[in-house]
Amino acid sequence: MRSIKTRVISAMIMISGFFLIITMGHIYCAILVLNLAFLMYKEIISLKRKENKEQLAGSLFSWIDWYYFTAFAFLMIPNLFVRRVLVEGAIPMGTFLHFILFDYHKLISFGLFMFGILLFVWSLERGSYRYQF
Question: Roughly how many angstroms between the first and final C-alpha of the chain, as a whole number?
């Protein structure tokens, strides 16, 4: 009976927290989505990883997983948070932030992904191809 009571109380806290975030607005929902994506990615990477193979592949290989997640988050952040219609006057044109988020954002994202592919190719080591792919 105690286990059911604990589960019901924790479920009510989680449901009320979820509805609170939903009612707070778009920005907080986007932060929730990014946090959930981070936690899910962390769990998937930890399930995939084998410590003894990780040492064979070098430390660069474990870093590349998080690099791709960060590059993808950089690609998605303007789509989640920054709408051109919502912030047309908030970020002045000609500033560094406007340059990164609006003018050359896709080009910077493309460069980040291409650099990630180069890092992956440079991290390949003979004998651990099966684990690295």
Answer: 48
Give the residue numbers spanning the domain of 77.
49-132
Distance CA 77, CA 7 (A): 34
Cα angle 103-109-110, degrees, rounded to a multiple of 5: 105
Q: Phi and psi at residue 118, in whole multiples of 5°?
A: -65, -40
- In tens, the pLDDT along 4-15 reads 999 999 999 999
108 token code pair: 């910077």
User: Could you say which DSSP state residue 102 is in?
Assistant: I
Please indicate, yes or no, whether the overall pTM of this predicted structure exceeds 0.85: no
Distance CA 41, CA 69 (A): 8
Q: Answer yes or no: do 31 and 70 share one domain.
A: no
Is 25 a member of any domain?
yes
